[in-house]
Amino acid sequence: MAQADISFDYPDQSPGFLLWQVTNLWQKIQRKALSELNLTHVQCALLAGIGFLEDRKETVNQAALSKHVGADVMMTSQVIRTLETKGLVQRERGISDPRAFSLSLTEKGRALAAEALKIVEQVDGRFFDCINKHKRNLVDVLNSLKVNENGI
Asked: What is the pTM of this model?
C-alpha cells in the first residue's frame, strides 16, 4: 500500500485516532456496567437528560432533549419509544404543537436513572483515575472541542 501524505508517523500521534480509540474503550466499559440494568449508554443519557431538564423546570420535548444531550433527533425519538415501552418515560402530545411530545420520567424511570448515574460515575471515576491531576484540563479541552463543532 502506498504511503499516504499524512501528518503523523504513528497512529498514536493522531489526536483524532486516539480520541476514537479512547471513546471506544470508554463506551465498552460503560456498556458492560449498564448491561446489569438492561440499559444502553444512550438510554441512560436520555433518561438522565430528561431528569436534568425536569429538575430545572425546563421544557422537556424530544428536540430539547436531543439538543441537551447532543444526540441526533431521529435516534432520540427511536430510543424514547423504547424507553416508553419499558415504562421508564411518558410521552404526551404537546398542547401548543400537537406534533411535539412532552416527555417525563415515570417513577420507575427516575429510580433507574438515579441507579444508572451512580454506575456511570463509578465507572468514570475508575476510568479517569489515572489522569486525576489532569481531569479538569481534559474537561476543558473536550468542552472546547464540543463548542468548536461548527468551526470545522
From this structure: 0.87
Domain chopping of the chain, boundaries:
36-147
| CA separation for the pair 129, 135 (Å, rounded) | 8
Q: Which residues of 17-52 are buried (b: 16+ CB within 10 A; e: fewer)?
A: eeeeeeeeeeeeebeebbeeeebbbbbbbbbbbbbb
Distances (CA, A) of 54 to 28, 49, 62, 75, 120: 29, 8, 13, 21, 20
User: Sign of the CA dihedral 71, 54, 102, 44?
Assistant: positive
Taking only the tens place, the pLDDT of each residue in 91-143 is 998 777 777 889 999 999 999 999 999 999 999 999 999 999 999 999 999 98
Has domain 36-147 been given CATH number 3.10.20.30?
no
